[in-house]
Amino acid sequence: MPPASPVGRPSPPAPPASRPSPPVTQPIPERQAVGRPRNIGSLGLDVRGTRPSFGLVRFWYVPIGLLLAGGIAFGIFWGIDTFRSDSDGEQSVAPVVTVASNTSPSPAPNPATPTPTPTPTPTPLPQTPTATPTPSPTVAQPPARFNPGDPAVVVGTNSCLNIRAQADIEGQIIDCLADDTFVTVLEGPVEQGNLSWWLIAAPEVNGWAAERYLARR
Fold it and tell me: Reading across the β-sheet that carries 182-192, which strands appear in turn?
């Protein structure tokens, strides 16, 4: 507690209150640019001398352009020279002079008349002779004719003689008589189917028989 001031004297003013000192802060570092040194001036000329030179790489198209230009110029001169050479060659060709001939052309000989080729005459083929049908042998009719009651015998059948119920080749067969069988003529003749038929009497049957297979006894 401060001592009491003497009476009658003004008390000295109180000392001003001390202000708090601001806190000490660290200096903020300067922002460094990306890709650049923090202080270019501090690097010196040594840093500048180490940078690569891009002069040749930057102008790479210059020599290529010169080569292309030279090639184009060479092609133009070569074409002009070739064209001149062709023109000189065409002018140096001597014109061909055609001399008209007064000789009259010889008339072309008439073509020979072609000799007509004789047309071959076809040779007629020999005709095949038509086969003449051979007539069937006809059995000769016996010259003898019969009268009713004449005795007769069966001949020339080589088997047997059909005895029919009617005087016809289509008549019903009722018996068959062997060769050398004796018969008796009953009546006839009846002409039917180019045959002469006689009614005969056999030992066991009576019927019609063809005359050609009957003979007199």
Answer: 173-178, 160-164, 206-210, 195-201, 182-192, 151-154, 214-216
Find the domain containing 55 and state its range: 46-88
Residues 214 and 161: their CA atoms lie apart, in Å, by 9
Q: In this predicted model, what pLDDT tens digit does every residue of 110-121 receive, in sequence order? A: 666 767 777 777
Report if residue 124 sits inside a domain. Answer: no
Phi, psi of 189, rounded to the nearest 5 degrees = -90, 160
> Could you tell me if residue 167 is inside a domain?
yes
Q: Which of 204, 207, 213, 199 is nearest to 149 (CA)?
A: 199
Of the candidates 154, 161, 157, the residue with the CA atom closest to the CA atom of residue 139: 157
The alpha-helical segments, DSSP class H, found in the chain are 40-49, 55-58, 61-91
Residue at 143 is within a domain: no
Q: What's the CATH number where 155 sits? A: 2.30.30.40
Count of domains in the chain? 2
User: Does residue 199 form part of some domain?
Assistant: yes
Q: Whole-model pTM above 0.70?
A: no
Mean pLDDT on 84-108: 59
Kindly state the tokens that stand for 205: 């049957």
How big is the CA angle at 135 (ends 168 and 170), to the nearest 5 degrees? 15
